[in-house]
Amino acid sequence: MDGQTKPLTRTVNLILLGPPGAGKGTQAERLVETFGFKQLSTGDMLRAAKKSGTEMGNRVAAVMERGELVTDEIVVGLIEEQLTTAQADGFIFDGFPRTLAQADALGALLEKTGQSLDAVIEMQVDDAVLVERIVGRAEKARAAGEPVRADDNAETLTSRLATYHEQTAPLIAYYGEKDVLRSVDAMGSIDRIASDLGAIVANVHET
Ligand code: AMP
Asked: Which long-range contacts (CB under 8 A, 24 or more apart) does 70-79 make?
């Protein structure tokens, strides 16, 4: 990629699928810059609800701090709201879906809004690298005097990883059967991973 914006000329919707710390948020931002997608991060939406102290935000705070999943109903509701109101040439789903029920609900919502799912990109990273990255992310934020995510600590991370393997990893086979699954090695440099993802998007866009 050359850092230039390459606007999408047709709608492309994709999911970034991977464990906590795989770099989904970082790479989603890069794809937004390059192609003009709209990023839909359920984690960001839930943190915003928590910060503004809404009733739902207060309800999910403890679940998030334990590294568990909030209910399918809540996150599907957040995504439905965006899909029916936001204007975009393409959406990047970041951190959603995380369960088979959410994946089914997303399929139904896309169908209802006349849209397709063009690619699901699995970001592959070893668990040991994830732990290093997340603990590093928290240390960097602390050193910079920035707020540290309540769930970015070694204890909650163990639970977030277990949740990923139990509830979210089955989506790899689910989307594999639907022929939309791609994967990238997400353990190298941010630029190299961005370039691999950009190549997949360009390929999907042209076909
Ligand atoms: P994330 O920023 O994607 O790592 O999400 C942070 C936390 O928000 C997760 O550990 C869950 O507690 C909650 N969360 C985010 N997205 C979802 C989802 N799709 N389903 C259930 N819980 C979610």
From this structure: 70/46, 72/99, 72/101, 72/102, 72/105, 74/46, 75/42, 75/46, 75/102, 76/102, 76/105, 76/106, 76/109, 78/42, 78/45, 78/46, 79/40, 79/42, 79/105, 79/106, 79/109
